[in-house]
Specification:
- The complex is a heterodimer.
- By secondary structure, chain A is an all-alpha fold.
- In chain A, 75% of the residues lie in helices and 3% in strands.
- Chain A is built from six helices and two strands.
- The longest helix of chain A is centred in the N-terminal third of the chain and has 36 residues, at 12-47.
- Chain B has four helices and two strands.
- Chain B has one domain (7-38, 49-101): Orthogonal Bundle (Histone, subunit A).
- In chain B, helix 1 crosses helix 3 (53-80).
- Chain B starts with 6 loop residues before the first helix and ends with a helix.
- By secondary structure, chain B is mainly alpha-helical.
- The longest helix of chain B is centred in the middle third of the chain and has 28 residues, at 53-80.
- The chains are: A mainly alpha, B mainly alpha.
- Chains A and B meet through helix 2, strand 1, helix 3, strand 2 and helix 4 of A and helix 1, strand 1, helix 3, strand 2 and helix 4 of B.
- Chain A: One of its GO terms (biological process) is DNA repair.
Chain lengths: 144, 102
Amino acid sequence: MDPVTMEECFDGSDAEKEDDDEEEATTHLRDRFRLSTINIAETEAKNNTMEISPSVIVCISDLAFKYAEQLADDLELFAHHANRKTVNMNDVILCAHRNRHLADRLKSISYDLKAKEPHSEKKRKKSSNKEDKALPSVVHIDSC
Amino acid sequence: MDSNFDQELIDAIFKSVWSKKAIEREKNEDAETSKGEERAGTSKKNRPTSANSNAVRLSCELLRLFVTEAVQRAATIAEAEGGNKIEATHLERILPQLLLDF
């Protein structure tokens, strides 16, 4: 326990408990995120007729979680820069602007989502799956 | 069928980051302006950011692409080495370029 915080505020134990709760909530989110990642990674490995070791999935999951937190930071900054309190699709596309293939892919998905806006919820889900199959599932980026 | 991240989960992760930052902002502002009158106005200004549903859906897609890219690139390396299981060394090989691309 930090002695300085104890001196500064009387409810030091309360503040610490809040921190614990926050940490617990993050851990819970991380675990749920990991479960989703396991699903996605194993499906993808199966598509490539490959096995994937669990430690690799855990590693990828932690990377993706960090990326998600970074994404949240960026999205907030972009939205605030535009004097908005709500993040919209353009902010997400802006996050990927350095990678043209990725940005194009996100743009095409965003158009589809926009087009489906006025329709019912069920319809939107159904056709978004169709759209996924029509496009190549992975963006290939030339690396040198 | 393609599996994807739960929208509600991604939304929760974003919200936890944003509310943490909103609390921090409020603390900073409180330290600057110690007058009680001005504090009433800031609570509204410091409301955490939110996201519309399409933005969350697009973020799910972006994160899914991150995971599938990682697996696919590692699979390419594993295949080149003649194995049929993706190991940590394969991930290590593709990691630098992957992080540069996202």
